[in-house]
Specification:
The protein has helices at about 5-15, 15-55, 80-85, 120-125, 150-155, 190-195, 200-210, 230-240, 245-250, 250-290, 290-300, 305-340, 345-350, 370-385, 390-395; strands at about 60, 90-105, 110-115, 130-135, 145, 160-170, 175-185, 195-200, 215-220, 245, 345, 350-355, 355-360, 360-365. Helices cover about 55% and strands about 20% of the residues. It is elongated and about 105 Å long. A hairpin with a 2-residue loop joins strand 12 (about 350-355) and strand 13 (about 355-360). It is built from 15 helices and 14 strands. It has about 400 residues and is of the alpha+beta class.
């Protein structure tokens, strides 16, 4: 018995039902590929915003600094520590922080000054590439600063505006200086957007007479696919006196969300395919009951129950293969489009942030082999499971009386 030939003829014989069933499965497969690519894109984009823009893979602080960011709580041996960390193959930079008041002609706001190493910081983060207007810091412009976008809006500042800083030096004197805005950042994180003022490290340390040592050391793995926990332990051995944390410990809400993103996509996949299974089950059962006499005749001429079941599964398989090819093609095309051009959500949500991390208003997809293969594999499994009742029905068909 040529099962595949007979199954192909049966599929074509009732092409209306075949078309509806195949399109339903293809539509579900397409939607799930697009959904999976967008979820993957959200995970990659969120991690990029959280790690590459500011946090880095690992941070080192003096004990208690994160709870009470005192200007005097520094790591006095930070230069030696940085050399040792770089010798282990990591990218590392030091940061210096201070607080004060920044004002324009009409407005003022509390700010956090962020002393930045202009050579090392670009090796660790990509904040220098995230400028919305103007340009990033330049060593030849020591009093040019880059500010967050919400702070710029609050102060009414734009590129070229003068900002007056008032604060206190580390030795108790009043500090004041006039800066000029060189650039305004895109959305990074809530604390940076609303209060950060980036300036060269040397300008900050000289202005405020900061004590020796950095407030924060940020580290990035040279190979980002290497084990994060092992890297943290390796760094912690070099800095036993200080607190060493990776970005997942520094931002537990974001880390937990990213860890469960794949589970969320899987749950969505299951619920969608349960609906598809009901369509497939209904179509196959209708096909069997319409041909109940035909199966009886086949049994009378010697077709075994197992061959009847194989025929049903072959028909389902043909429709599933067609649906997968169609769904895979459409899903890949749409996902690739959103990976290239993104989905602009700014008109719906404006500036979106989650757990202190600003999300890019343009939502990009991220296509991987897993994103493309999982919906196809699940579609085959669901279709085969949905065909079980129909297959069982054909085995109970009796031979018609002569």
């Amino acid at each position: 018995m040529k099962i595949m030939t007979l199954a192909s003829r049966n599929v074509l014989r009732n092409w209306h039902r075949t078309l509806v069933t195949t399109l339903a499965m293809a539509f579900a497969c397409t939607i799930m590929i697009i959904y999976g690519a967008l979820m993957k894109g959200m995970v990659v984009g969120s991690e990029r915003q959280a790690v590459i823009m500011n946090q880095g893979d690992i941070q080192i602080h003096a004990e208690g600094y994160r709870d009470d960011p005192d200007i005097y709580t520094t790591m006095t041996d930070s230069k030696i520590l940085l050399e040792n960390i770089r010798a282990e193959g990591f990218h590392a930079t030091a940061r210096y922080f201070a607080f004060g008041l920044m004002a324009t002609d009409d407005n003022s706001s509390g700010v956090q000054l962020r002393g930045t190493d202009l050579i090392r910081e670009p090796q660790v983060t990509q904040i220098h590439q995230h400028v919305m207007t103007g340009s990033f810091l330049d060593k030849d412009d020591p009093y040019g600063v880059v500010i967050g976008k919400k702070l710029a809006r609050l102060l009414g500042a734009k590129v070229g505006s003068e900002l007056v800083y008032i604060g206190q030096t580390a030795d108790g004197y009043m500090a004041n200086e006039i800066f000029k805005v060189r650039g305004i950042l895109k959305a990074v994180a809530s604390n940076i957007d609303s209060a950060a003022v980036f300036l060269p490290e040397q300008t900050l340390t000289e202005l405020l007479s900061l004590p020796q040592g950095a407030h924060e050391i940020v580290i990035m793995r040279a190979d980002r696919s290497s084990d994060l926990e092992a890297a943290k332990q390796q760094v912690a051995v070099l800095a036993p006196k200080y607190e060493t944390l990776d970005w997942r410990e520094l931002m537990p809400v974001i880390a937990r969300f990213l860890e469960t993103a794949d589970v969320q996509a899987l749950i969505m996949l299951i619920f969608t395919y349960i609906a598809v299974a009901s369509v497939v089950l209904n179509a196959v059962l209708m096909s069997v009951f319409e041909r109940i006499n035909e199966f009886g005749i086949m049994k009378a001429i010697g077709v075994s129950p197992l061959q009847s079941v194989a025929l049903i599964y072959a028909e389902v398989m043909i429709q599933t293969v067609l649906a997968c090819l169609l769904g895979l093609g459409l899903g890949w095309w749409a996902s690739n489009y959103y990976q290239t051009y993104g989905m602009d959500m700014s008109g719906l949500a404006g500036d979106v942030s989650f757990a202190g991390i600003a999300l890019d208003p343009v939502w990009y997809a991220y296509v991987t082999l897993e994103v493309l293969s999982n919906p196809v594999i699940f579609l085959f499994l669901i279709a085969m499971l949905a065909a079980i009742p129909a297959g069982a029905t054909t085995r109970t068909v009796n031979v018609p009386p002569t």
